[in-house]
From TrEMBL, chain B:
CDD domains: TM_PBP2. It comes from Bradyrhizobium vignae. The lineage of its organism: Bacteria, Pseudomonadati, Pseudomonadota, Alphaproteobacteria, Hyphomicrobiales. Part of the ABC transporter complex CysAWTP (TC 3.A.1.6.1) involved in sulfate/thiosulfate import. Probably responsible for the translocation of the substrate across the membrane. This is Sulfate transport system permease protein CysW. Residues 88-291 form the ABC transmembrane type-1 domain. It is found in: Cell inner membrane. InterPro entries: CysW_permease, MetI-like, MetI-like_sf, Sulph_transpt2. The complex is composed of two ATP-binding proteins (CysA), two transmembrane proteins (CysT and CysW) and a solute-binding protein (CysP).
Amino acid sequence: MTIEVRNLVKKFGSFAALDGVDLKVDNGELLALLGPSGSGKTTLLRIIAGLDWPDSGEVSFNGEDALAQGARERHVGFVFQHYALFRHMTVFENVAFGLRVQPRAVRKDEASIRARVKELLDLVELDWLADRYPSQLSGGQRQRIALARALAIEPRSLLLDEPFGALDAKVRKELRKWLRSLHHEINVTSIFVTHDQEEALEVANRVVVMDKGRIEQIGSPDDVYETPATAFVHGFIGECIELPVQVADGVIRLGEQPLKLAADGLVPGASRLFVRRHDMLVGPPGSGAFEGAVQHVRNFGPVQRAEVALSGGETIEIDAPRDKELRAGDTIGLEPRRYRIFAG
Amino acid sequence: MTMQIADSVSLSASEAKARAKARAHAAAARDNLRTEPRAVRIVIIALAVMFLTVFVVLPLVVVFAQAFSRGLLAYFAALAEPEAMAAIELTLIVAAISVGLNLVFGLVAAWAIAKFDFKGKTFLITLIDLPFSVSPVISGLVFVLLFGAQGYFGTWLRDHDIQILFAVPGIALATTFVTFPFVARALIPLMQEQGTQEEEAAISLGASGLQTFFRVTLPNIKWGVLYGVLLCNARAMGEFGAVSVVSGHIRGETNTMPLLVEILYNEYQFVAAFAIASLLAMLALITLIVKTVLERHLDEGEDASDH
């Protein structure tokens, strides 16, 4: 199913949760809505599901107006951050719920319902938990049951609200991979909300970055990482160095210090320069665009992280390979391999 | 697609041992907190036991002792009196009506307050508490003002030959008013704590409003409902003040059990008075026992909802 959203606006009091959002989701896509809390991503998902209503704008499924229908008629599977399993029902009855509440005319007989539930529990690899109650399951198991329950009604699309947000880091990583392969298997149009950039970049085909109720950028994980469209996206995705610079007369200055960087095509005035930590290459003094003194160095997994006081007055953190010799007190040159400058 | 996901369901032996150790540690710490000397502890406990004996146990014993003071036969004879039988019957009818009404009102009010946002919600919550903050006698008087011969609807009611005051409808109304908060009060915090996510899940899975209510909302609050009904019933059967104002004390017709106890006592029929009082006391004891059982179930329900 394709999902299209046009000029969606939703206000809670004076706070605009959605401020004119346009989005098109293709059939079979696995799309991530990525943004900090309060960016409106969950509100957008709930409106698509029919659990919330916009103040204005349109939502259509396969070209049909979806706002004319309630959540019940939209036939969309929804997975909640805190699972929302029915606590008084067994795992089996939770998954069977959507099949049991269907109108009598289309409801399946008991044997087919049992067969379908069994099939779904096999799909999420938890058939051995059928008789347990939700309180007896671990978080990861609960979320997989919630997914099986949502899939039981053969939804036209699957909406997941921070599905791994309440899980610990290890289980989260496992479930991420599992979700991607599940999507590959069932191939239903899916949207998931997350504030975790790593999750979005790893799982989704396409990423929508949101901030303050607006969409900042839509693109493939590579696009949003390699060519961020706005200062917000650059700052939000990947670990970043952000420097306030001045552009004037074809020269970029950090404080009083002119930088050996091309200023072609830049708007004069106050700007911000973004570089990823690992894109700052270390060289001998005088070799790069920046120069600075190493304050201290810490080993940090595969890299060493150095705090460097730039001669322009700012202090930054860079990631250098472990085999690079860096010691506190060294004066080094720094050359940004890749960088972006945004006006304002 | 094969993925192994770690289970946290079963505890390893070493983990279990570590937990037991932590528990023993906590108990020891608690003991250290008991710094009062033994004598002080004994005095305080003795005071508490004495207080309970004088104010709770003794009155209960006296009720039963008085009721049986002339033997079992006199006790049952007093209960078999037509007046006593009529009072018991009336009390049961009134309790059934008001508990039934308050079950419906309480459920609806709690559902609206806990699951929806609307203007005037705080005002509604205050209104629900009103019967608790008004003296029962005033509650009764309100109905006299409304339906009495000199009341707002008095003339109209007389013209249409409808009897409310000094009859079952008046007693039921006053009782319903006084016991209104019990069911709603038991349910509102429970339903608020449970939130609306399970309902949202049900609706997105295709359930109608009624299906959602009966399959998801109601099973989650069933122990709370029973708890509210139990307390509501205990108060409905024991209500004195409001009923006294609207009943008219017509012997064998509009006397509930508490009213009859007073009348019999004032006529020096102690065995009969205490025989009926013993029934009310037993109701209280049974209520307490059932309440304890229900509270255990409510706690379990909370544990089950722990994430």
